[in-house]
């Protein structure tokens, strides 16, 4: 995923489906200089993980 799109998602009120390794996640924040994002799983778990933004994917409905 591109940094520009992450910024759009974070500033949007829409519920955008983003996945990391096939699992749906929320993007909490990003680090532009490291090209990483802090994400957590959708649902009750609040554990946050730092991941490369290149491994995030936006899922589109068919």
Automatic annotation (TrEMBL):
Database matches in InterPro entries: SASP_SspH
Calcium keyword on record: no
GO biological processes: asexual sporulation; sporulation resulting in formation of a cellular spore
Primary localization class, coarse: other
Compartments in which it is found: Spore core
A GO cellular component annotation in the UniProt record: endospore-forming forespore
Matching Pfam families: SspH
Keywords: Sporulation
Inducing stimuli: Expressed only in the forespore compartment of sporulating cells.
Protein family membership: Belongs to the SspH family.
Protein name: Small, acid-soluble spore protein H
Organism from which the protein derives: Halalkalibacter hemicellulosilyticusJCM 9152
Taxon lineage: Bacteria, Bacillati, Bacillota, Bacilli, Bacillales
Gene that encodes it: sspH
């Amino acid at each position: 995923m591109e940094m520009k799109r992450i910024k759009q998602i974070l500033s949007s009120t829409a519920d955008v489906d983003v996945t990391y390794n096939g699992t749906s996640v929320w993007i909490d924040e990003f680090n532009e200089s490291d090209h990483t994002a802090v994400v957590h799983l959708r649902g009750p778990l609040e554990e946050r993980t730092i991941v490369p933004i290149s491994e995030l994917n936006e899922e589109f409905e068919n």
